[in-house]
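Re: beginner question about structure tokens

> Can someone show what the tokenized structure looks like for a real chain? I only ever see the sequence side.

Sure, here's an example I had lying around. Input first:
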Amino acid sequence: RCFRHSHPSREPYSCHEIVEPRTDVIKKTESIQTFSHSGKCSLHKEKLTLYCSDCSQSCCTKCKSMECHRGHSIILIEDAYSDLKISLNNSLSKLDNTQAHVTTSLKCQRDNLKDMQVGITLTYNGLLLQIVTYMKSYLMGTLTTSYNY
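And the corresponding structure tokens:
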């Protein structure tokens, strides 16, 4: 599965499943980026200190008491940042492990391919030797028969 914006459309990638980035991660990242740029609520002009997990957006203490966030899971924005950072680090770790596994598998397949190529070459040479030996024997037999007549 590949992201459209980072994926060439030519071989060998043309058969890959194209996916877009996860919207929940994008929303969290954008919300935290908004916080880091302005740090103030656009409605109440207060400092953004909270994060609504249900809406995936930063909010101020006044926003928290509004109807649109009532009953939602509200956490400190620093905790949301820490959670997102941990989640991204876990994803990065999984990607690193997957990359290592793919690299190892690719090396193993290349080694197997080399072994198969050696086996095919040995079989080819063996068959060629059998054909040459048979042809020599056949021609020698034909010459001997012709010479005797």
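Each token stands for a local structural state, so reading them left to right follows the chain. The CA atoms of residues 29 and 84 lie 8 Å apart.
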